[in-house]
Amino acid sequence: MASPVKTPGHVAAPGLGGVGESPLRPDGTLKVAGEFAYASDLWMDGMLWGATLRSPHPRALIRSIDIGPALALPGVRAVLTHEDVPGRKMFGIDHTEDQPVLAIDQVRHQGEPVALVAADHPETARRAMEKISVGYEVLEPITDPRAVIADPDGLKVQDLGGITRHQPVRVGDVAAAKAGAEVVVAGEYEVGIQDQAFLGPESGLAIPSDDGGVDLYVSTQWIHNDVKQIAPCLGLPEERVHMTLAGVGGAFGGREDLSMQIHAAMLALHTGRPVKMSYNRYESFFGHVHRHPALMRYEYGATADGRLLYADVEIVLDGGAYTSSTKNVVGNAASLGVGPYEIPNIRIDAYGVYTNNPPCGAMRGFGAVQACFAYESMMDRLGAACGLGPVEIRRRNAVSQGSRLATGQVIESPAPLADMLTRLEAMPMPPPLDPSDLRNLPGGVSQTTHGEGVVRGVGYGVGIKNICFSEGFDDYATARVRLEVIGGEATVLVHTAAAEVGQGLVTIQAQVARTELGVQKVTIAPADNRVGDAGSSSASRQSYMSGGAVKAACEAVRAGLLALAARRFGRTDLAVAGGKIVSRADGVLGTVEDVLGDAVIEETREYRHRPTTAMDPVTGQGRSHTQLALCVHRAVVDVDVDLGLVKVVELAAVQDVGKIINRTGVEGQIHGGSAQGLGLAVMEEIVLSDGLVRNPSFTDYLIPTILDMPPMRLDILENPDPEAPYGLRGAGEPPTLSSTPAIVAAIRAATRRALARVPVRPEHIVQGS
Amino acid sequence: MRVNVTVNGSHEVVDEVWEGESLLYMLRERMGLPGSKNACEQGECGSCTVYLDGVPACACLVAAGQVGGRDVRTVEGLAEGPPGDERLDPVQEAFLETGAVQCGFCTPGLIVQAHDLIGRNPAPTDAEIREALAGNLCRCTGYEKILDAVRLAAERTAAAS
User: Fold this and answer.
1) Which residues pair with A489 in a beta bridge?
2) Domain 2Fe-2S ferredoxin-type, which positions (chain B) (predicted)?
3) One fold for both A290-470+614-767 and A476-608?
4) Which class is A290-470+614-767 in CATH?
5) Which residues of B are less than 8 Å from A31 in CB distance?
6) B42 burial via Cβ count (<10 Å: 0-12, 13-18, 19+)
7) Alpha-carbon span A468 to A542, nearest angstrom
8) Cα dist. A706→A447, B129, B145 in Å?
9) Which terminus of chain B has a smaller tally of CB atoms within 10 A, N or C?
10) Span A601-623, mean pLDDT?
11) Tens digits of per-residue pLDDT, A250-285?
């Protein structure tokens, strides 16, 4: 190739800091200097720009595609359709290959890819797409998920559809419990479609490789699963799809499914030239799956003093046209559908369905978010019916270590929910805001009143999230660790395929290596598929899984180092500490550098968590999760009840993370997760009509700004999980669950409105809902 | 078309610029300065914020042809010192140290905006920081540590002057 590609390099972890400290991010200096190579920054001499023509219709038959005029445009190097897919024409995550690489005879959602263009300039590619003529026969879209459940065979959007998965949960005898309940409450709840809205758009660079394959530099969450899906579609063995992680501008689940990977590779292989693809924000809204919208019916019965007797629940999740990860999302919704509460009799029916609405899949919280809004709303409703406050009703029913979840799974490690609620309630309250400063009022400087209608409300929310992959999946991560002397200094190189998506995994990998090997200088290699699978950067699992793999590989390297030292010093009472080989009896014997000399110690290890089991298809019973994590939130809001405007004044959170590996990092996870929950509570929704997205832009899909996000109070607990590395508990997702219901509860407290739907809109506050 | 522009103190002549290109495209794709990010192309997210004649602007909303004869400063031009031996600006250092950077995609724009704020207002209140950064979206941090970073940068800048 004509020039070196600007691609990701090694990052050297600066400064000191092992497990429990907060060293600087190894990639941080590059990021603040504007020099970090994100996927959209990649560039190569002679590269072409790829673009994707997408369906304007949610459901239509394709009668014809004419690419001739587009191909004739000067500067256009390729126009490809489904006929040009070199291998298998379908792909999909989770082993369900039901999604066409490019639409074949029909389109099933707005934005479905139909054709590809490669051109010298992105504007030329855009103009070429306008010249592709697709003959559509437009059909009535199927958009009502409850109608699909009622008639799954009649309302099929694809061969697999109607119902993607129905997962029941059956515990005890709900019918009998209904007869004995002294208090019964019921509610219907709805959650709109939330978008991950990561800031770095889907992007990547594909380069034909010397072995007839392709080098791919992309922003993804799971390199190996990408390659597994890409290779068959390209008609290549996996060994010839060389994937390197390019800088990732946030993910939040939205990069778990493929976006431009196969498309860019097809264009590169077809033209023999490097091809860059980078979506703009409009396209990004169609380029990835979203959080499933949900329709939920709940009925709870309890004793007069507020002890839960039964739960009768239906959860309907709209997965859109293709399977994506809907089956696993349904599993989470079912297993965590009543939250961290002890309930002796449970009936849950969780459904995922196919429609012509936008495809939905993974987003932070993954099936646990939707139900959390409903079950927490129910706890407030039950508390009110029993004359108990929000904290007391939750404490009275809270799980603890030894409790059973709805699946029958026993919570084996600490789950101090009642204590967490007590701590949360005891946190100081924020003072009233000075209404003479407009910036303090709901609506800020656009307020037109003097705050006469502003009412304060307080609400609480609790959430429980499974950590790592569940339901019997063989979940593992791989790490290669190399120790050698470079320039006179012992240096560790950590190599995994784990995706750094912003969460700080590269920092933690370096911390683990320093702690385990006592060596200061640690370098993190770019993630790629020259090392074994790391699993996805999702399910809050990478500190646990890739952290565990790096720890295991370091332990093996350390054993090798100590074996060298044992030979050198003729004794076995040895350990590594602070870059020295020390004897328990005689202290320091020498440095790591002395012992290593020219030797290179390299070890690769796979790490697995304890196996889980499938959920019983009839009863939902099973030990389906390996770790569970709790977060609780208190929200304080000021609501202008006349104008329907909300200002979240403060969020307080208590989360148990088992062990704080990096305080700065875990605080950032709780802050950021809480902000996304705030977005779902009062701002964020992909608005649909007849299967069409009405707001695919940051002008119309609003995410929280610094004016929307309040100060936070955090109390981070460390009750270790003995099964996990260092006792840690995955931390990224739980705060996304509980902040939403806490904020809505606070708005209810201020407005006395039912607010059965998120996001809460001004009209719900003013007119009720 | 040809564009004559000063970028990060250096006079540049950029050829073959198409009239429809934005300043952001020209910086990123024609000048090898991808530090300014493209996340919305509508002026909503602030990720492409640069100084244009000393005033922060969204580079996505400025046509490349409009910057002829003008002065542009990007995130790549904030560090001081000779090439290869630059010292980060206090705002950059503060973002790094406080944990205000996660994925970092919003970071260049936020740093330019915060740099401008501290230049105009050496001791901003929290309300002033929030107001100044209200046009910069961040999806990772919840903004708490960004506030910490701006407070720290302001303190250090004040202490140094």
Assistant:
1) A486
2) 1-78
3) yes
4) alpha beta
5) 96, 101, 104, 107
6) middle
7) 8
8) 18, 9, 11
9) C
10) 98
11) 999 999 999 999 999 999 999 999 999 999 999 999
Q: Of all helices (H) and strands (E), which one includes residue A239?
A: none
CATH 3.60.110.10 describes domain A476-608: no
In the numeric block, the tokens 């990224």 are attached to: A732
Is B22 part of the contact surface with chain A (CB cutoff 8 Å)? Answer: no
> Is the omega angle on the peptide bond into residue B90 within 30 degrees of 0, that is, cis?
no
Angle at which helix A542-569 crosses helix A505-517, to 10 degrees, equals 30
The set of residues, in sequence order, having a beta carbon less than 8 Å from that of A382 and lying 6+ positions away, is A183, A185, A300, A302, A306, A308, A393
By Cβ distance, the residue of A22, A43, A200 closest to B103 is A200
Asked if the model's pLDDT at residue A5 lies above 60, the reply is no
* CA separation for the pair A378, A232 (Å, rounded): 47
**B3-77 homologous superfamily:** Beta-grasp domain (3.10.20.30)
Dist CA A321 CA A359 (whole Å): 6
Contact list in A for residue B92 (CB cut-off 8 A) is 32-33
Summarize pLDDT for A424-482 with one digit per residue, the tens. 999 999 999 998 999 999 999 889 998 999 999 999 999 999 999 999 999 999 999 99
Can you tell me the distance from the alpha carbon of A384 to that of A61, in angstroms, rounded to the nearest whole number?
52
In angstroms, the CA A82 to CA A100 distance is 8
Confidence of residue A725 (pLDDT cuts 50, 70, 90): very high
Tokens found for residue B138: 């961040």
Mean pLDDT score of chain A:
96
DSSP classification of residue A85: -
Helix (H) or strand (E) holding A107: strand A106-107
Q: Is A709 on the interface with B (CB under 8 A)?
A: yes
Separation CA B146–CA B161 (nearest Å): 23
C-alpha dihedral sign at A34, A39, A44, A47: negative
Whether residue A769 is predicted with pLDDT greater than 90 in this model: the reply is no
Provide the H-helix boundaries in A570-627: 592-596
Q: What are the extents of the domains in chain B?
A: 3-77, 90-160
CA–CA distance, A203 with A39 (Å, rounded to integer): 5
Is A252 in contact with B145 (Cβ distance < 8 A)?
A: no
Does pTM surpass 0.95?
Answer: yes
Res A2 pLDDT > 60: no
- What pLDDT, on a 0 to 100 scale, did the predictor assign at position A4? 43
Ranges A234-243, A429-438, A623-632: which has the least confidence: A429-438
Give the per-residue pLDDT at A14. 61
Q: Which residue has the tokens 């970071």?
A: B107
State mean pLDDT over A172-183.
98
Nearest Cα residue in chain A from B127: A439
ipTM, two decimals:
0.98
Of B33, B39, B147, the CB nearest to A199: B39
What letter would DSSP give residue A292? P
Beta carbons of B34 and A43 less than 8 Å apart: yes
Residue ranges per structural domain of chain A: 40-140+201-248+255-287, 290-470+614-767, 476-608
Q: What is the mean pLDDT of residues A718-739?
A: 98
Nearest CA in chain A to B112: A32
pLDDT tens digits along A524-561: 999 999 999 999 999 999 999 999 999 999 999 999 99
Strand (E) positions, B59-145? Answer: 71-73
Q: Which of the 8 DSSP states describes residue A520? A: S
CATH placement of domain B90-160: 1.10.150.120
- pLDDT-derived band at B82 (thresholds 50, 70, 90) equals confident
Q: Is A33–B76 a contact, with Cβ atoms under 8 angstroms apart?
A: yes
Q: What is the CATH number of domain A40-140+201-248+255-287?
A: 3.90.1170.50
A154, pLDDT greater than 70: yes
pLDDT score of A678 more than 70: yes
